[in-house]
């Protein structure tokens, strides 16, 4: 991975140039994987099944062509800059439409800029994709600090608020005085914080995967619909069955990182397990996300050796009532907010809880398919909802 030598405020071109030795080392490590045993008939209940994992790793080693996807990324304008001592990598895809609206889009974990590859064209150039040119955006898609091409963080403290301040500075350096923010998964927290730290410039925040928790007030639970009660019940299942990754990464990320950094099979299994649980699929995550797209996402973690720093990000931003005093730590937002709800979101939001913390929800959409990585799973739904929300701010 190469970029020119910077001064601290410089924005410079970036090109992904992976040494062949790194790809050869990956294949060699995969070939030498020592596989664990497995209980019979366990399915996915204990994690990624051994037979599926072996087959997926074999495909990664023998058939997957990273150079193809490296070229796809390099066909997009990539840049880096240093903000608050941290290198920030980002895509900056400008629209040819004169009235395009700047929009900064933030991914979560274990995602990356790869999540948005299918939506970049339609959002920046709707004319060429059968859409209305008035819906065009200039897209800024950063890699989170500590994730992938932004490289590892070198100090603690990179929580949602600090990242939001970095995003505000990034948009200032790019010359955007009026812009929107969009985020999925952890990116919802960052985008929301961006609206709080830069309210004079952020015109609205659109989210998918917004997490909303009950405050503990019994009155808040009265009159919930059947759908809302089901979502609340799923929260208990999530905390019991699906929360283990968060507890490990938010308490002992360094210990976990030794296995993920040394074993590509380990890194692949860790991310694949999450994609199985958080996408709209039944048997394998490939029902929701193409195999090559999943592997390209994993590659950005593996090649940059950012398993440790991406895991550390969970230490920085408490996101449950058990981790923090939400009443004190979650500042109410009055910025216009749009919420897209997909049925396989990690925890689908309940509107009354969301409105407690976000006082100006002006757009709420519920979809019948899709999950946490909506831009990758259901790009058409994602594109349509982003366009619909931000139309109110154009003109």
From TrEMBL:
The lineage of its organism: Bacteria, Pseudomonadati, Myxococcota, Polyangia, Polyangiales. Keywords: Aromatic hydrocarbons catabolism, Hydrolase. This is Epoxide hydrolase. Transmembrane segments: none annotated. InterPro entries: AB_hydrolase_fold, Epox_hydrolase-like, Epoxide_hydro_N, Epoxide_hydrolase. Gene3D superfamilies: alpha/beta hydrolase (3.40.50.1820). GO terms for biological process: epoxide metabolic process. It comes from Sorangium cellulosum (Polyangium cellulosum). Belongs to the peptidase S33 family. Residues 11-116 form the Epoxide hydrolase N-terminal domain. One of its GO terms (molecular function) is cis-stilbene-oxide hydrolase activity. Its EC number is 3.3.2.9.
